[in-house]
Amino acid sequence: MKSPSLALLVASTLTLGLISVDAHADGSGTFGKTLVKRGKGVNAAAFGVGLSGRLAGAASSPVAAATIAVSDLPAGAVIQNAYLYWVTYGTAGHPTITLDGTAVTGTAIGSSQGTCWTEYPSFLNFTYRADVTATFTGNGSHTLTDFPSGAADADTQGATLFVVYTDPAATTGGHVLLYDGAMTSRSTSSVSGTFADVQPPAVISSVRFMVGVGDGESVLPDGALRVREKPLSFPPPGGQHFRGSAGNYWDDRSYDVSEHVDASHTSVGWRATFSQDCLVFAYAALTIQSPTVPTETTDPDAGDGSSSGSSGSTGSSGASGSSNGGADADGGSDDAAGGAAPDAVSGCGCRFTEAETRYAPAAIVVAGLALARLRRRR
Q1: Distance (Å, whole) CA 98 – CA 308
Q2: 3-state secondary structure of 287
Q3: pTM of the model
Q4: Maximum CA pair distance of the chain?
Q5: Are 243 and 217 in contact (CB under 8 A)?
Q6: Nearest Cα to Cα of residue 83 among 26, 19, 16, 130
């Protein structure tokens, strides 16, 4: 069951800034830059799997092992960077996991608020990243074990292999910008960020926006997802962006945003608006393909730093803050393209149907309609 708290239901809209900086910047409630790479044949792909053992309305069903299927990397592709991401959902983080029989220890790159499960009111989300370039073998099945799943004090939302590669056969140029951290969208809040210093080529063949998200489910509507304030279409079968497309409560999504980005855009903003489903965001990436081959540059993991922007409720503190950036201001309203306007009574951007409320605990139902409207069922 998901249930936003009363305090969050009346919270103001949250906008989080994400900018590129010279130093590496992880974040709790923000994203920081992890990699910028440009050069001949440069491209990126993401492959993920859900690891959660939580089940709405039923006993947990822990996952002991799961497989990430990597496919369609070009023949002869040279792996430049392979990052393993995972998000632990619990009272504390879990920095270790096993990939293809090798123990991996991740860097804690951020923590953010829980994603509204009333059964786990003290749970937070913890994002980890591990550089597995040295052991990653490319196309094929990659097995994950030794992660918490469906336990009383910990679960894992999911995991992703984010792969940056060069195709020796390519005659085109590519740009990859990768940011990560931990941001939770809940109640009336949205999450957003900006890819700065994009350096787009004069001629662009294609642009893709990629994002990794935990705790999405098929029974709760999503709000709008925008790049440069242009709403993106829902992926098939429609109706939602994040429905557990990579497995239980995990999504790796990729969108063609070529029509929204051109050579004049030195920064590219994105924003996800809350509707009814509380979500955690782990990474975002922008890839650009061009017939022009740029000068080869790489800026990976450049040390410590901080990203701009403050959080309305970050990590476990719930501290109030204000926004200083995010998506490009090109207009558009929060309730377009699948978003919902705030509820007139509670201030929550939610719409409740009989099907969504009938599972509310009896005590809440007896307490009355006003309180029942504050609860959502997975």
Answers
A1: 33
A2: strand
A3: 0.77
A4: 67
A5: yes
A6: 130
